[in-house]
Amino acid sequence: MTDLSLLPVQEIMARDPAHAPLDREPDWAAGAAYIIDRFVPIGEARVPITDLGFLRADAVYDVVSVGRGQFFRLSDHQKRFARSCTRMKLSNPFSQAEEAALLNELVARTGFKDAYVWWAVTRGANLPRPDDRLHSDRFLNRFYAFVTPYVFIKDDASRQRGIHLHVSENYVRIPPNAVDPRAKNFCSLDLNMSLMEAGEAGAGWSVMTDGAGVLTEAPGSNIFVVRGNRVLTPESGCLEGITRLTARELCSEIGLEVVAGTVTVDDLMSADEAFLTSSAGGILPVSTVDGQPICQGAGPNSTRVHNTYWERRWAGWHATPVDYGASR
Amino acid sequence: MTDLSLLPVQEIMARDPAHAPLDREPDWAAGAAYIIDRFVPIGEARVPITDLGFLRADAVYDVVSVGRGQFFRLSDHQKRFARSCTRMKLSNPFSQAEEAALLNELVARTGFKDAYVWWAVTRGANLPRPDDRLHSDRFLNRFYAFVTPYVFIKDDASRQRGIHLHVSENYVRIPPNAVDPRAKNFCSLDLNMSLMEAGEAGAGWSVMTDGAGVLTEAPGSNIFVVRGNRVLTPESGCLEGITRLTARELCSEIGLEVVAGTVTVDDLMSADEAFLTSSAGGILPVSTVDGQPICQGAGPNSTRVHNTYWERRWAGWHATPVDYGASR
User: Fold this and answer.
1) How far apart are CA B18 and CA B15, in angstroms?
2) Which B residues, 85 through 114, put their C-beta within 8 Å of a C-beta on chain A?
3) Is the dihedral of CA A246, A306, A187, A178 positive or negative?
4) Would you say the C-alpha torsion A303, A308, A314, A319 has a positive or negative sign?
């Protein structure tokens, strides 16, 4: 295998005019939101305090990224979001076509070429009669969305070095029989606490187990473990990540055998390489786990998947171009 | 044991002028809120969409009730809230004295004599650099609160009949090693889904297990099982409910032996009586579990605890009178 170096993605993006945002009014150039029934600049975007999405994390959401003016795998994200709604008995007030038009409009208003596009359906307002909480059809579910500039979980230098990963000891991931992580939802206090535990341990990100030594997922990310010619990723207890799906496809393409199954902490500690996948950052190589070296910097397979991911995205793979002239 | 009948609490409250709200402007008479740094009528109370309390359920909260113009066990609620903050590495911008003054001011603005007083500290705004998520001290935590009219989970007639309880089969309670339920928090999608499961089963409320036949808690409530002279309540995997604490004290007073420990579904099914406890409704007797009769209507011990609870509260037990003339 030839020695590859990790593409300095942010450096490339900063130089390339294809990533420069279009001119917009300052209010919209900071970000845009859709609140229940109207578009507002992000600075004015607020949720009624009695919305059950806030009071009880009763909501599902999704996030799609835009790169170089193109949504990546938009329909895959929309299909996953529809499954999340069904799993949590939430009813999306918009059709998938309306939803796509609305997300496009949000990006168009900001002029962003690289963006983080978040949307959710919440249970809606709390109902005056507690008995109504027993019936999903008595709620008026609400739609919220916002667009902010794209942010990388880690910068070029951190990706090149590979991050220090901490396996959470104090928190396990909420199990699927409590809240199904395949329905992307707000209940992530466990994930957030594990991040602060990682910070205290001097690490750069966390990963969570099921409490019995089996890996589940990392905050906002799925995990992959490379061992020889095989790549392992947890099959259950985790989000059905779209970047996870993409990484699986790319691994197969470069001749690695991909296995979704049980992946233990021991598998991770004895791996040749490991990486995290997320919409907010793509492929994130791991160099140490709990202070133990896994590999020197970003491993060769991680690097290849990382570089291929960005080259394909910029070339328009699975892309839906943003219509910047659109207006509803 | 003499045959007691359950006090018609709502009927009594409706007749008694001590429960009539004071006159206020219509905007405030619907409810009041405190949003980060200011008081607003409830209809204008909104949370920035990028607050992590919304996006990631990264928050703790508490609820204290006001009855007949008096907070009930306010300092117990405040102490629990302080413990919740500590457990989740959240920093309350207000001291306990400031918090108490603020909650009082909210009730005073509405003129409510019977109210539900909710407050929370959230992680605050999402931070621009994802690396900052690893350090709790880099967040600016935010305070939110609101007051709405008091609502009973179930009405007089339902409490007199006793409710039909459903033991959730499809969902288990989020375990303490994922998100500690002693820190009252927003992650309650499991509880909400179990309520809808109960609704589909024709029941009136749900209760959740740990997945191994051990009871944990019910949505917004703790559970008690009466068996002869003994009263059992789950010791762990549940909120340290203030009404649970109160019910334990009242049970002891009326000569029942209270045991906090492991309580199984079998214990519940073979109980003489059972009841739920919550700030939103006090003592809620159970008459059937999964369609099996536990007792006929509200059982005698449940009735005694229920009635004593309200008689004591109205007599000013553990009360902090609202200062309706207060203004900051």
Assistant:
1) 9
2) 88-89
3) positive
4) negative
- Choose among B49, B89, B280: nearest Cβ to A33: B49
The answer to whether the Cβ–Cβ distance between A185 and B186 falls below 8 Å is no
Angle B147-B153-B154 from CA coordinates, rounded to 5°: 140
Q: B112-161, pLDDT tens digit by residue? A: 999 999 999 999 999 989 999 999 999 999 999 999 999 999 999 999 99
A204 vs B contacts (CB less than 8 Å):
131, 134
Residue B200 sits at the vertex; the CA angle it makes with B195 and B201, to the nearest 5 degrees, is 95
CB B140 within 8 A of CB B125: yes
Span A7-44, pLDDT tens digits: 999 999 999 999 999 999 999 999 999 999 999 999 99
What's the pLDDT band for A328 if we cut at 50, 70, 90?
A: very low
Distances (CA, A) of A164 to A204, A224, B33: 5, 15, 43
Chain B within 8 Å of A211 (Cβ-Cβ)? yes
What pLDDT band is residue B328 in, cutting at 50, 70 and 90? very low
Tokens of B184: 């009252």
Give the model confidence (pLDDT) of B252-276 as tens digits. Answer: 999 999 999 999 999 999 999 999 9
How far, in Å, CA of A315 to CA of A307, rounded?
12
**Quick check: A172 and B185 CB within 8 A?**
no
Contact (CB, 8 A) for B267 and B274: no
pLDDT tens-digit readout, A176-222: 999 999 999 999 999 999 999 999 999 999 999 999 999 999 999 99
* Å between B172 CA and nearest CA of chain A: 5
Residue B182 has pLDDT above 50, yes or no: yes
Taking the Cβ of residue A138 and every Cβ of chain B, the question of whether any pair is shorter than 8 Å is answered with: no
Instruction: Give B211's contacts in chain A (Cβ within 8 Å).
Output: 175, 177
- Which residues of chain A have a CB within 8 Å of the CB of B185? 189
Residues ≥6 apart with Cβ < 8 Å to B48: A45, A46, A47, B125
A130–B148 CB contact, under 8 Å: no
DSSP B139-160: S--EEEEEEEE---SS-HHHHH
> In the structure encoding, which two tokens stand for residue A297, read together?
């910097």
Mutate to test the interface with B, among A34, A179, A200, A238 (most CBs of B within 10 A): A179
CA distance A284 to chain B (A): 13
Scanning every residue of chain B, which has its alpha carbon at the shortest distance from the alpha carbon of A54? B54
Q: Is A184 on the interface with B (CB under 8 A)?
A: no
Interface probe with B: pick from A180, A185, A187, most Cβ of B within 10 Å: A187
Q: How far is CA A123 from the centre of its chain?
A: 22
Give this complex's ipTM: 0.97
Whole-model pTM: value is 0.97
